[in-house]
Specification:
Layout (H helix, E strand, L loop, with lengths): L3 E5 L2 E8 L6 E5 L11 H9 L3 E5 L19 H15 L4 E6 L1 H12 L4 E7 L18 H8 L10 H12 L10 H14 L3 H4 L23 E6 L7 H10 L4 E5 L12 H11 L4
Parallel strand pairs: 3-4, 3-5, 5-6, 6-7, 7-8
Antiparallel strand pairs: 1-2, 2-4
Organism: Actinomadura rudentiformis
Pfam families: Abhydrolase_1 (PF00561)
InterPro entries: AB_hydrolase (IPR050471), AB_hydrolase_1 (IPR000073), AB_hydrolase_fold (IPR029058)
């Protein structure tokens, strides 16, 4: 397990792999402003032990991938959504099992709709329909503590002060915890890893959220043909569980698996057994 870089179209994408490249590839796509470290090494290793070739990567403006100036991303939402294909091409992987979280779940939906031959199976975690729903569902909005982060955000830290940036990164995750509670030591460990390996934390915490393009406006969820698993925390404060239920209802044959007490986050260690078993089952025969 060593960090590597694929360079294509002038873009550097940093990634790591776990397991045997001869096994089926599972591509993990993180959420907005998240580098690959939020897919924890032990989580990836357990998937690899089950006979999967696991790939995690840094989005642009996170980790060690290409970075733009803060507030001035040099790419579009569609560019970000097609980076997984650039990475798979660089690895010589024709098709992959795609697992996406939050914004990464939107990217995963895009890939399944626009590039279906590249997606063997689809796992959507802590995300929402990124195209208009067809069943007339009215989905609930974020919890008050999440809305407050948009209407009254914390002041930015001094980006040259490592300790202040780590504290800011930890606090950014705090409102998204579910009823399992906020595991501050674990989040601080991951936030420290992220800060210490990211080219530009100011850009990382800003640029994904000011991209204005949505490449999925004309698509429908019922056009997804990949076998699909929806993982959703029962206490997700960003996208309440109805969002996951809507995805499962509109994607033909999708399995819905609630994660008890989980918030808006990668599956935490408390539910790794449940989540990993479900992903292994999904990817077993497809």
């Amino acid at each position: 397990m060593t960090e590597q870089t694929v360079t294509t179209d002038g873009i550097d994408l940093c990634f790591e792999t776990f397991g045997d490249p001869a096994d089926a590839t599972v591509l993990l796509i993180a959420g907005g402003a998240q580098s690959m470290i939020w897919w924890e090494e032990d989580f990836c290793a357990r998937l690899a032990e089950a006979g999967r070739h696991v790939v995690r990567y840094d989005h642009r403006d996170t980790g060690r991938s290409t970075s733009s100036p803060a507030g001035r991303p040099s790419y579009t939402g569609e560019d970000l959504a097609t980076d997984p294909l650039r990475l798979l091409d660089g690895l010589g992987v024709a098709t992959a099992h795609v697992v996406g979280l939050s914004m990464g779940g939107g990217i995963a939906q895009y890939l399944a709709l626009e590039h279906p031959k590249r997606v063997r199976t689809l796992c959507l975690g802590s995300t929402s329909p990124w195209v208009p729903t067809q069943l007339g569902r009215s989905l609930p909005g974020p919890a008050p503590q999440i809305s407050a982060t948009f209407t009254n955000p914390d002041p930015e830290p001094d980006w040259t002060d490592r300790d202040a940036v780590i504290a800011y990164r930890v606090d950014a995750e705090r409102p998204y915890a579910g009823s399992l509670g906020f595991d501050e030591p674990r989040v601080r460990r991951l936030a420290t890893q992220e800060v210490d390996r990211t080219r530009n934390m100011a850009a990382s915490m800003t640029n994904h959220f000011i991209l204005g393009e949505d490449p999925l406006t004309d698509a429908r969820l019922d056009q997804i043909t990949a076998p699909t698993l929806v993982l959703h925390g029962t206490t997700d404060p960003m996208f309440p569980i109805e969002h996951g239920e809507a995805l499962a209802a509109e994607i033909a044959g999708a399995r819905f698996l609630p994660l008890p007490g989980v918030g808006h986050q990668q599956p935490p260690p408390e539910v790794w057994g449940l989540a990993i078993a479900a992903i292994v089952e999904l990817t077993e025969h497809s």
